Every structure is written in structure tokens, then in C-alpha cells.
Amino acid sequence: MLKRLLVLGALGLVTVAGCSSTSNDTGSNAGPLPDGASLLKDAAESMKPVNSATFALKVNGQVPGVPVKDVSGDLTKKGDAKGKAQLDQFGQTFEVDFVLFEKKIYIKAVTGGWQEFGDATKIYDPSAILDPERGVAKLLTSIDSPVTEAREDVGGTKTFRIAGKVAKDKVKSLVPVQSDVNVKIWVKEEGKHLPVRALVEVSPGNSAEITLSEVDKPVTVTKPV
Predict the structure, then answer these.
(1) At 85, is the secondary structure helix, strand, or coil?
(2) pLDDT tens per residue across span 42-82
(3) What domains, with CATH codes, occur in the chain?
(4) In the chain, how many H helices and how many E strands?
(5) Rounded to a whole number, what is the largest CA-CA distance in the chain?
(6) How far is Cα 13 from Cα 56, in angstroms, rounded to an integer?
């Protein structure tokens, strides 16, 4: 579960909270839209020095192999993480707390205490998420035929919306897909074009919507007691 949870959560970095968006005028007054490939290259570079972030994931419809509806928490480049998740099991939704600490997974349900579920590396190596050679930065440069579609306001931040496709071989280790997937990435208009939001469409009507905020904020994760 946490393998899909954390990787999906890492697909997009944001510098603002929230994921609502509003399309803006893309006419001559706004100027021409920049090249999508160049924006994604800048976005990938901007992520390389990131050491921590707060992430959130919302699943729309169903994503096979991802039994969560909503996930939020904090993540470090070292691979430690903590947060809450809503699991969809047998038609019911359960909320749990989770901690990844020194490669081990701990989960606490509504009732009862913390339980250790073993070596996290057997499920997923979370240190890969913010690794510039294995994680999100690498994924952004793997998007095929990116096109800048529009300017949009996302949670009060001006962004460019970029659409493209990712080959299943590039993403299937992160998201359990059977074919190539369509993606949309929102990056800041200004500065180094940090990613603001990501939408991964696994199939029509079924997608994962991801945001991260408070980039490089201090994050401390400790072993549950």
C-alpha cells in the first residue's frame, strides 16, 4: 500500500496548499505559452535540491493496486515519512496513521496501538522519491510530447498547465498501469517553475491527483511508541 501511496504523493511538488484551479485568459495580452519540454526540464532541476515536503494524494474513481482515497503527510529525502491515510476496503473507508522510520513501516488504526509491519524496503524504498536520479525529477523528464495547454490559477499561484503521456515502462514501477498514461503537470509561471500539481489518468474517470506543499520545511519523524 505505502509503495503506491508515497510514490504517487511524490509525483508533484507544490509551493502552495490546495488544488483548485481556474483557467485564465491565454490570449495575446497574456503572451505566448512557453515550450512544455523546457518547463518540465526546469521543474525537474528545481526538485533536485528539495530535502522535504508535505504531500497529499486524492484518488478519483479507482486506481487498481492503490487501496486509498486520501493520503496526507510529511516526507524527507532520507525516506522517513508520517501522516494519515483513508483506506477503501470491502466497501468501507478506514482511517489510519502511518510512520516510515529507518526503513520500517508502522501503522495505527482507529482502535489499538502502533503495529510494526516490517522492513519497508521489501515494499518500497522511499528514499527514491526525492532522489534526482530515481524519483520525481527523473519522471518529469520522461514525459513524452509535452504541450503547454494554458495558464491557470492553482490555489492562488499562477501556473502553466502542461499535458503529455508517460510510457507504461517508465511509470509501472510507481503506479500499477497496464498501458501508457496521460498526465497533466502544473508548474509555477515565475522563478524556477517548481511543480505545483500533478494529475495521472490511469483510465477514463480514474486518476490520482497529487499536491505537495511547504517544500523544504523542517520535518522530524520518530519511531512510534
Answers:
(1) strand
(2) 999 999 899 998 888 888 888 777 767 888 899 999 889 99
(3) 2-213 (2.50.20.20)
(4) 4, 12
(5) 60
(6) 10
